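User: I'll paste a sequence; please echo it back and then give the predicted structure.

Assistant: Echoing your sequence first, then the prediction.
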Amino acid sequence: MKITPISGSLAAADVAADLRALADLAESDGDGFVAALLARLLNHDVFPCHAAGHEHKEQRAEVMAEAIRRLKAVASGPIKKDYNESGAGYFDATVPMRGISIVLTDLRAEVCTRVVTGVETVTEEIPDPDYIAAAPTITHTREVETVTWECGPVLAPRASEKADV
């Protein structure tokens, strides 16, 4: 997939030169402070969609997949996927390297497909709406969806790649 970077992005050669200079500094720094600073900077979540141009706004899953494919070349092990259930719900793909990990993240609903796999009936005690002040409880039965998330398009390897992601 050809991705147009966000407008105003630096030239690849300039970014590469800056990263080489930082790597040289980290290696030559006697007490490891610069390496610790860089590791702290780099071990934060990255939204791949924020690096892509506006024309890719509706292609967040494809942009995530492309970021995973391209970073796989520098991964020191399998790329791990995680789902954060808190808040809006996030999908994370962690690319391990020797000293750092790059965490690619996005809203799970933007890069995965929600699939209802069943419905479960749940019975619970809730306050009776007519007598909330006295707060007696009644038995209430409701249906709760059972779901899984299929993130295949995000993590699907190309035909030429191993399926170890």
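The mean pLDDT is 80. The first strand starts at residue 45 and ends at 46.
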